[in-house]
Write a structure and sequence with these properties.
Layout lengths: L3 E9 L2 E5 L5 E5 L3 H10 L4 E6 L16 E4 L4 H20 L10 H21 E10 L6 H8 L4 E5 L7 H4 L5 H8 L4 E4 L2 H15 L7 E4 L2 E7 L6 H9 L1 H13 L5 E8 L6 H14 L7 E8 L6 H21 L7 E4 L5 H10 L2 E4 L8 H9 L6 E5 L12 E3 L4 H13 L2 H17 L2 H13 L18 E2 L20
Parallel strand pairs: 1-4, 1-6, 4-5, 6-7, 7-8, 8-10, 11-12, 11-14, 12-13, 14-15, 15-16
Antiparallel strand pairs: 2-3, 3-17, 9-10
The protein binds adenosine-5'-diphosphate and 6-O-phosphono-beta-D-fructofuranose.
The site of adenosine-5'-diphosphate (ADP) has 16 residues, from helix 1, strand 11, strand 12 and helix 13.
Protein name: Trehalose 6-phosphate synthase
GO biological process, one term: trehalose biosynthetic process
EC number: 2.4.1.15
């Protein structure tokens, strides 16, 4: 088994099995914030990525992608149901997002969570060089740091949570709260998106485990675990370069024509998730149409909603409700050839996303709760001419950084409508001033700055930082690699090309 000095461990590998338009087999970058953040960073580094390839059945042996080794962990149908769809996405996900949907608790799900975390820890132990650095990602794998430390104490272990970490009153609902906290404390450094999350964690560790904790350090046995906020970002330069490409600019012009040359285009790009506030946004838009504040010929809304976690009941119900509402709004306010909402559920390559960002006069990013929200950052990075208004929820981690956006509370329907109206009617001078400030921030605080600050803190000396990729040679994010001998069985939980 080949070993690496840097191992990234995440539930999902950075590529998904997709079908190219010509019918060829293609592995395409998986959508989702975690992959968008880490994939450009690791390209051409001697790292190994341990993760799941989507689907169930034996783990396919994947070739390296952009020089990064893919080490696949297999999930059985029961693991998929009870670990990924169950404990990760029907217990932890809603609980960590303010319980906007009711978290469910089942003992069988907890068993699967332990089992799958154990499998990830074992797979990581196999591929990590002696004394190497392991970087564990996100809520699916909170037990991995502790499990890994037990049999590989030589490793330096980092853990980063991409989603919010909830306040004590919510986390205390978890029947296995102590085990989850202990699992994370197996790391040398526990990173969060926001300072408040690190504070919540320190409070919980004191309360549940009775360990001495501040918002920066926790004493565990004879070790010190450091904690802190490291807001994740994007490859700002990559998105800027992509958006500035002549073919992308031409595509944006064409998209505008195809939309009927409206005066203003509003865009939203979300995974279809109840945390993203899609229903609230549609309601606000529909009320603005009803009062005549927004007119169909003048303005169009493009809503990209990529289906996600499609076998989880709450997600199925959400999709039905959104599609019913889009149908109702188009039926009520659209005209022949002029729908009020252009609704798209397909995956797009990076160039097409960049063209969409370029065509959007207003970008509406209004989640009810979001760890960060990289779509908002991508939009800003793509606005190379300093135009475009970002309507942003106060409850997205991004709001702490992009405070010049038009900030709204998505729970407040009147506030949401007012914010949308303000963004649509803002003067060009105001829009440009705000956009320039946000772009300057993202120029400094890009994905490499994030990784540098995290890995320096983890590595205490920063030797690792020099090994990260500094250039991007594949901005479209498409990797054409031969299909592996054992292809994973397609599952509704994978992102599927073409819908
Ligand atoms: P989350 O991690 O909850 O999905 P983020 O906004 O942080 O939310 O990240 C979503 C990422 O997925 C972004 O990089 C975005 O460009 C990408 N994405 C979203 N929808 C699509 C789509 N339809 N096709 C391709 N990529 C998408
Ligand atoms: O940001 C949270 C997250 O779970 C990430 O781990 C991932 O990038 C994204 O949402 C997509 O989710 P999934 O892997 O379940 O499709």
């Amino acid at each position: 088994m080949r070993q690496s000095s840097l191992v990234v461990v995440a539930n999902r590998l950075p590529i998904d099995d997709s079908q190219a338009p010509d019918g060829a087999c293609e592995w395409r970058r998986s959508p989702g914030g975690l992959v968008s953040a880490l994939h450009p960073l690791l390209r051409h580094t001697p790292a190994t990525w341990v993760g799941w390839a989507g689907g169930t059945g034996p783990a396919p042996a994947l070739p390296d992608v952009d020089g990064v080794r893919m080490h696949t962990v297999a999930l059985s149908p029961e693991d998929l149901r009870d670990h990924y769809e169950g404990f990760a996405n029907a217990t932890l996900w809603p609980l960590y997002h303010d319980a906007v949907e009711q978290p469910q608790h089942h003992r069988r799900w907890w068993e699967a969570y332990q089992r799958v975390n154990q499998r990830f820890a074992e797979a990581t132990a196999e591929v990590a060089e002696p004394g190497g650095v392991v970087w564990v990602q996100d809520y699916h794998l909170q037990l991995v740091p502790g499990l890994l430390r037990a049999f590989r104490p030589d490793l330096r272990i980092g853990f980063f949570l991409h989603v919010p970490f909830p306040p004590p009153e919510l986390f205390m609902q978890l029947p296995r709260r102590a085990e989850l906290l202990r699992g994370m404390l197996g790391a040398d450094l526990v990173g969060f998106q926001r300072v408040q999350a690190a504070h919540n964690f320190a409070q919980l560790v004191t309360r549940v485990l009775e360990l001495p904790a501040t918002d920066r350090r926790i004493g565990v046995d004879d070790r010190v675990v450091r904690i802190g906020a490291f807001p994740v970002s994007i490859d700002t330069a990559e998105m800027g370069a992509l958006a500035a490409r002549p073919d992308v600019a031409a595509r944006a012009r064409r998209l505008r024509q195809d939309l009927g040359d409206p005066r203003q285009v509003i865009l939203s790009v979300d995974r279809m998730d109840y945390t993203k506030g899609i229903e609230q946004r549609l309601k606000a838009y529909s009320e603005l149409l009803a009062t005549g504040d927004v007119k169909v010929r003048d303005t169009v809304l493009v809503q990209v909603a990529m289906p996600s976690r499609e076998r989880v009941g709450q997600y199925q119900i959400l999709r039905e409700r959104i599609e019913r509402e889009v149908g109702r709004i188009n039926g009520e306010f659209g005209r022949v050839g002029e729908p009020a909402i252009h609704y798209l559920t397909q995956p797009f390559d990076r160039a097409e996303l960049a063209a969409l960002y370029r065509v959007a006069d207003v970008m509406a990013v209004t989640p009810l709760r979001d760890g960060m929200n990289l779509v908002a950052k991508e939009y800003v990075a793509a606005r190379v001419d300093d135009t475009g208004a970002l309507l942003l929820s106060e409850f997205a981690g991004t709001a702490a950084e992009l405070s010049q956006a038009y900030l709204v509370n998505p729970h407040d329907l009147e506030g949401l409508k007012q914010g949308l109206r303000a963004a649509l009617r803002a003067s060009p001078a105001d829009v440009t001033q705000r956009m320039r400030a946000m772009r300057a921030h993202l120029h400094e605080h890009d994905i490499r700055a994030w990784a540098r600050s995290y890995l320096r803190a983890l590595d205490e000396g920063g030797a690792l930082v020099g090994r990260l990729s500094s250039t991007d040679t594949n901005p479209d994010g498409v990797a054409r690699v031969p299909r592996p001998a054992t292809a994973p069985t397609a599952s509704p939980a994978t992102h599927q090309a073409g819908g």
